[in-house]
């Protein structure tokens, strides 16, 4: 029996939000011995083991199949995993860690605004200087693919491990490809993003490895985790709306137009309605119920909405067999 292994960021900007994400799903990540212990557990789930890794190590572990699930940035999935479509399955985006991978050039290049302009500069540069334009980046694979798509071949990649934005000023490259969120690092280094130079819009994702050992035990644990995650996700978009109306059947028909549905049959009071309503339609739903005779309509937020069909688990199960 092999446990389900989940890799979560041990440091960096995704760490805190990852703990919060599992917490919202009612899953408490335990790191016995504190931040220096690289193995942990989830309280109450005995067939789950947590591996604490850096965000880029998580992408590699998913690719190898040494972990079943990982939380990491889409940029790292696309950069560090060859043929991601056949090696990993993106379970769900997590709504945090937004960042764009972009092509940025010195602001002083006033007539370079697009990838087409850059293409011209690259050819000119080569004939004028007898060497190729240098692009500093750690996103080597993403850069190659993106530049090829724009027909740019006259360039050379200078691999950069950190402080990439400093490369043009330091003279080690002419332009860069890097990740940005607020843009303040680019701005501080007098760089601008090309108009069509956004290569990838990234955020943190829950990702499954297709190469891991998906034993019956691991798959059952995955289902338990994804049930909670899906239930929490569903609850965030839904409100419980309650009212007493003149005619329940007619009221339910009316609110079904805004997507509200009755989930529980009430035998006690023939005029009471309890409906689950999409969050954005709550005001319309309340209005319709008042038209159906309600004096008061109350709206409650929910912690979880569990369903027999799990939209996160079903596609995973299809991919890993089981
Ligand atoms: N402003 C940002 N800059 C860089 N990365 C960001 C930003 N916002 C979100 N991210 C995401 O966080 C991921 C990890 O970045 P972070 O710098 O936190 O990790 P790290 O601790 O440097 O990890 P590693 O040592 O593996 O590089 C990025 O790959 C990206 O997906
Ligand atoms: O657009 P901004 O909001 O300014 O953020 C972008 C910067 O943040 C990241 O560096 P990080 O701080 O992670 O340092 P690192 O390169 O050492 O990982 C990234 O590599 C950029 O340099
Ligand atoms: Mg970083």
UniProtKB/TrEMBL annotation:
Residues 55-212 form the ATP phosphoribosyltransferase catalytic domain. GO terms for cellular component: cytoplasm. It catalyses: 1-(5-phospho-beta-D-ribosyl)-ATP + diphosphate = 5-phospho-alpha-D-ribose 1-diphosphate + ATP. Pathway: Amino-acid biosynthesis; L-histidine biosynthesis; L-histidine from 5-phospho-alpha-D-ribose 1-diphosphate: step 1/9. GO terms for biological process: L-histidine biosynthetic process. The keyword Transferase applies. This is ATP phosphoribosyltransferase. The lineage of its organism: Bacteria, Pseudomonadati, Pseudomonadota, Alphaproteobacteria, Hyphomicrobiales. The gene is hisG.
């Amino acid at each position: 029996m092999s446990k389900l292994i989940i890799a979560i960021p041990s440091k960096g900007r995704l760490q805190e939000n990852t703990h919060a994400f599992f917490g919202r799903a009612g899953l408490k990540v335990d790191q016995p011995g504190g931040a220096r212990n690289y193995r942990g557990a989830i309280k109450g789930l005995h067939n789950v083991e947590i591996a604490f890794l850096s965000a880029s190590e998580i992408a590699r572990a998913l690719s190898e199949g040494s972990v079943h699930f990982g939380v990491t940035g889409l940029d790292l999935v696309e950069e560090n995993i060859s043929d991601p479509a056949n090696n990993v399955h993106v379970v769900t985006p997590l709504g945090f860690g937004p960042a764009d991978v972009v092509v940025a050039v010195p602001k002083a290049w006033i007539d370079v605004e697009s990838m087409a302009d850059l293409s011209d500069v690259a050819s000119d540069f080569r004939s004028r200087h007898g060497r190729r334009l240098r692009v500093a980046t750690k996103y080597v694979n993403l850069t190659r693919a993106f530049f090829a798509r724009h027909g740019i071949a006259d360039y050379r990649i200078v691999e950069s491990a950190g402080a990439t934005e400093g490369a043009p000023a330091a003279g080690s490259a002419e332009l860069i490809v890097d990740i940005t969120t607020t843009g303040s690092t680019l701005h501080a280094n007098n760089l601008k993003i090309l108009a069509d130079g956004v290569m990838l819009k990234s955020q943190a994702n829950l990702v499954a490895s297709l190469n891991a050992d998906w034993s019956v035990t691991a798959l059952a644990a995955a289902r338990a985790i994804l049930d909670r995650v899906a239930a929490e996700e569903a609850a965030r978009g839904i409100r419980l709306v309650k009212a007493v109306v003149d005619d329940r059947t007619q009221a339910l028909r009316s609110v079904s137009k805004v997507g509200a549905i009755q989930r529980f049959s009430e035998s006690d009071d023939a005029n009471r309605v309890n409906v689950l309503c999409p969050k954005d339609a709550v005001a319309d739903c309340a209005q319709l119920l008042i038209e159906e005779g309600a004096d008061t309509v109350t709206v409650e937020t929910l912690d979880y909405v569990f369903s027999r069909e799990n939209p996160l688990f079903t596609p995973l199960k299809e991919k890993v067999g089981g």
